[in-house]
Amino acid sequence: MVVRLDLDGNEIKAIKICMIGGGGFIGSHLCETLMWETNHTVLAIDVYSDKIDHLLQEDTPWANRISFYQANITLDPRVNDFIKDCDLTINLAAICTPADYNTRPLDTIYSNFVDAIPVVKCCSENKKRLMHFSTCEVYGKTLGSYLPADDPRRNEPEFYVLKEDDSPCLYGSIEKQRWSYACAKQLIERLIYGEGAENDLKFTVVRPFNWIGPRMDFIPGVDGPSDGVPRVLACFSTNLLRREPMKLVDGGKSQRTFLYIKDAIKAVMLMIDNPGRANGHIFNVGNPTNEASVKELADVMTEVYSKVTGLPKLPQPTVEVSSLEFYGVGYDDSDRRIPDMNLIQKQLGWNPETSLNDLLEVTLDYQHKTYADSIAQSMNSSKAA
Ligand code: NAD
Ligand code: UDP
């Protein structure tokens, strides 16, 4: 393999990475890049491995650089030994599907805060570098959302652009249990930041802004529970595959910025390979130019799905549902999420590249090729029953 250089022109030395939650959506893409493009070694820890099984085969050139350890980190004392044995720990493990935040708030808080504490402490006590995955949701709602609907200040960036070292974290009341996830992630960020300040923990915190792409979540009834509710990409993909209308929660007015997973992984790789520039920072990682309301996302997905499959659009591609009906009591929403990109540009020179249209073409092509047959079979067998 050619010598890889960091942003300051120094040779990047191979390191050993302990990747907790390495079998998930982001973990699977990160493992691919680490195996295909670097000499780093990965120990992936997760409850599941199906999304990385293709990397774990014995006859690959990287077979001696990746291993999988099946474990629930809350129940397995060996995790500490693995962290001590590695140069860098990347913690991706979390419950991170909004349908769980208000219906399983305890699991959500334990998973995102309590279960992450021993990982932070082990890194801090053993002077190991930690890269922790937080979320853009720590910002909560925008300042502008508290202004009257016709207030012109809503259009001023300081009322909606989310900046790591400046924007406040604005959540709803405790009854709005949606915010259990954001609050747990905020507290683990504060713990990490405190360990950095008081005990010199070398850390990087990543705040992903709606990273999407192949292998995200699951398709209910095919590779996940039939009553499960994944994140919006997989919900809408399921609807398209089943030829049923996509459900717009509360009209689909909320806005998101969508980042292609492959662009996101480039940002994570820069953080891994440039500790001097990434340590001590909390980074927004998103694509401010790919903003769409959920309704607009549904419209683009309708067009793109029709283009990649050749299937006609449904006469009624979307229906509106209330959040109470869709998520139950205690749901609330982030109104808008535009990341400020100055810090990541300055420290790492990273910029996203892929448009929403292009990333959806790749992703929906993948969804169709991966799931269309299984969906057709499951729909036929339920018709026959
Ligand atoms: P994911 O659910 O696909 O991955 C999380 C992985 O962690 C899963 O494979 C799960 O099995 C594993 N895990 C959970 N608890 C575990 C435990 N106790 N022991 C072992 N493994 C455990 O989600 P993802 O999209 O890959 O997200 C990864 C991280 O990034 C999470 O911390 C999430 O909060 C954060 N994040 C992601 C996005 C995004 O856009 N995808 C947005 C915001 C935040
Ligand atoms: N959403 C929707 N229909 C669905 C699933 C989600 O309208 O079938 C909306 C949800 O209410 C939110 C947005 O899509 O406004 C994004 O939801 P996602 O689950 O991806 O997570 P979030 O961005 O809120 O963390």
UniProtKB/TrEMBL annotation:
Gene3D superfamilies for this protein: NAD(P)-binding Rossmann-like Domain
GO MF entries: carboxy-lyase activity
Superkingdom per UniProt: Eukaryota
Protein name per UniProt: UDP-apiose/UDP-xylose synthase
InterPro entries, per database record: Arna-like_SDR_e (IPR045869), Epimerase_deHydtase (IPR001509), Lipid_A_modif_metabolic_enz (IPR050177), NAD(P)-bd_dom_sf (IPR036291)
Domain NAD-dependent epimerase/dehydratase residues, every copy: 17-286
UniProt keyword list: NAD
NAD recorded as keyword: yes
Claim: Ligase is one of the keywords in the record: no
Pfam families with a match to the protein in the record: Epimerase
